[in-house]
Write a structure and sequence with these properties.
Low-confidence stretches: 115-120
Mean pLDDT: 95
Largest sheet: 4 strands, mixed
Distance between the termini: 6 Å
Shape: elongated
Number of strands: 24
Strand order of the largest sheet: 22-23-1-24
Strand content: 15-25%
Amino acid sequence: MDKILIRGGNPLAGSVRISGSKNAALPILFSSLLASGPSRYRRVPRLRDIDNTLGLLETLGVGVSRSGHEVTLDTSGLSRCEAPYDLVRKMRASVLVLGPLLARLGRARVSLPGGCAIGARPIDLHLKGMEALGAEIRLDHGYVTASVPGRLRGAEFTFDRVTVTGTENVLMAAVLAEGRSVLRNAAREPEVKALADVLNRMGARVRGAGSDEIVVEGVAGLHPVEAEIIPDRIETGTFLAAAAVTGGRVEILDCEPRHVGSVIDKLRRAGAEITVGERTITVCGPERLKSVDVQTQPYPGFPTDMQAQFMALMSVAEGVSVIAETIFENRFIHVSELSRMGADIVISGDTATVRGVRRLSGAPVMASDLRASACLVLAGLVAENTTLIHRVYHLDRGYEALEEKFSALGAEIRRVS
């Protein structure tokens, strides 16, 4: 199993180009199931989660063609409505086949999902939304079986809590429902807006995406589409954080600054100098960051997917910071590994108190999930001596060529077997 070896201490310098967003690409690729024929997508990142998605689509009868960062999906041969456990267990987002299959075929059988070990992430709101649209839902032997006689029916549905994949799944089902649907307390994330934009280009009638109320006028059918995936805001935030914590100067290219406003705000308060262009961000890190408090919130608040990386920064910042995680439980697993590197962190419930130290010390550490992996990379970049990160397959789920990009910025980082 591969590991990542880092010798810390180098300020990062240069420019880095941001890849397409994994969290936008996944629902958009699954949305191809809503129409018959070939759809083409550009700027699709080369990631393990994307590989798993394409493999799942192939098992459903979709023709998959891939060249570099371009993917073509031909859904005219869609022949199956079951997403089996062996594929779904690898990636929680696989549950996003439920809405499109149910809307187009009138039936779907999907294994209950897997993914990162960061606490319970139930799909109850996905299922309640489908039921509101007229689907009959059964749970048996670890599978969700959904069916509807004829077409789904438009409905008004309020999510009990904000859920990104739940919003996306119900939205994809609603676009082919008969009549109007109103989704309230919907997720506002840019990935939801990106999905709605693609659906509208396919012939759907969706408005309000990006707000907490989405209105859908159902249509009888959709057509294939050509689309480009938006930049990955979490990769953008990770490189912003890396430049700031190493005291470097990095220009981030092909990004969407509006999507990382909360991260930019916290880094500026911590002492980083940040200049924002139309599609670029330049960050200059201080000699030492200052501690700032963080509370994760649904978009446009501070993203839970940046919490671990920000904790690595606060571990070496001047002062004491309080980091509150309000989205997922069990998302402080990386704390024990940071502590092995000399970080001073105390956890109480959903809050971590971080007392910054002057330097971390390189050590062998183990990644527990995708964003914890990135956290340990950032810690390794500023630690004395060498850090060896085990179980880096998590990184391959969500970061494209991460070590190559950091190497190009001057980091001493390489993958070893």
